[in-house]
Amino acid sequence: MAAMEIAVEIGTSYTSVYLSGQGIVLREPTVVAFMNDGGRKKVRAVGDKAMEMIGKTPEKTTVVTPVVDGIIADPDTCAVMLKEYIRKILPENYLFFPKIRAILGVPTGLSVEERKMYEDVLAAARITDVTMIENIMLSGIGIDLPINLPNGGFVVNIGGGVTEIAAISLSGVISGCGVTVGGNMMDKALIDYIAGKFSLKVGINAVRKLKHGIGSLSPNDNSQMDVEGIDIRTKIPTGVTVYATDIREAVLPYYNKICDAVENIINECPPAIAADIYKTGIYVVGGAGSIFGLGDLMKERLKLNVYFPPDPSYAAILGAGKLLGDEKLLHEILM
């Protein structure tokens, strides 16, 4: 293998890699577990295996999440993780490390210093030919919006650490922002809610199962699910029944903040663009955008149509993969 083209998305919750000609070849949690080996940090696990260790590690093992609120907060750990992921996608019998060209999805509004940090992280993983494109633009491409036209579309990407919002026209962002509201913040809010209401301490994996199982923003949803944890008063393992309405009460304020941000961005758009948005509606992607009832909430709050494309968690990485084979569109975006 002499050369390889890939697309990379390093998200707060998940890191994805798209290999040209094959599609998405890796999607694992943005997590690394280190073991203290005589004062030196040694990688014990990355991704899925590291995620399973959260809340269960022995004294000498530390689990690190290198991306916070959508931005790389621990470049060294992130580079270690990405290097391991690149090794995973290489053929087992490769003799020489290939030259890698990458399209990298990045958050909206990175500073010069932050862009340099992303370049350094990829260089440490032996990826030196990097083109950075904003995730919100990639999300539009991933769901087949005509981003190169005057009415390209309006995208809301609700990720793990940040929600990115943008009106796109002629391969550029007309009005957009990133707000530090995402699925991880909602997970912590749900942990606190269960502790306060039920006096039960639960872990992050438990609340994510609750969200995926019965997560709902509908006030009339009667779904229920049992969850186990530690009684805060007695310190004894026990369980309680949590209802969809409990999840709604815990996370609704965060989705209302997202609706407020969407409304503000639309109001900042030129009148012609805003009029088009009210005609065509908005598109919601990202893992935290898949909760039941979100469409009804946003329609009621914003008074416009809301669309949820298939596989919303993969929108950005699929868009980056499409750009690998579309030099013309890539050139238009970079211009």
Which helices and strands, and how do they pair?
Elements lengths: L2 E8 L3 E6 L3 E7 L2 E6 L2 E7 L1 H4 L9 E4 L2 E2 L2 E2 L2 H15 L9 E8 L5 H13 L4 E6 H8 L10 E6 L4 E7 L2 E8 L3 H16 L1 E2 L2 H11 L9 E8 L5 E7 H25 L2 H10 L1 E4 L8 H9 L3 E2 L7 H10 L2 H8 L1
Parallel strand pairs: 1-9, 9-10, 11-17, 17-18
Antiparallel strand pairs: 1-2, 2-3, 4-5, 4-6, 7-8, 11-12, 12-13, 14-15, 15-16
Keywords, separated by commas or semicolons:
335 residues, alpha+beta, five-stranded mixed beta sheet, 11 helices, 18 strands, flat
The secondary structure category is: alpha+beta
The number of helical segments is: 11
How many β strands by DSSP? 18
Task: Output the helix-strand order.
Answer: EEEEEHEEEHEHEHEEEHEHEEHHEHEHH
What is the CA-CA span between the terminal residues? 32 Å
| Whole-angstrom Rg | 21 Å
Q: What is the 3D form?
A: flat
Strand order of the largest sheet: 3-2-1-9-10
Percent strand: 25-35%
How much helicity do the residues have?
25-40%
Major sheet summary line: 5 strands, mixed
Low-confidence stretches: none
Average pLDDT confidence is 94
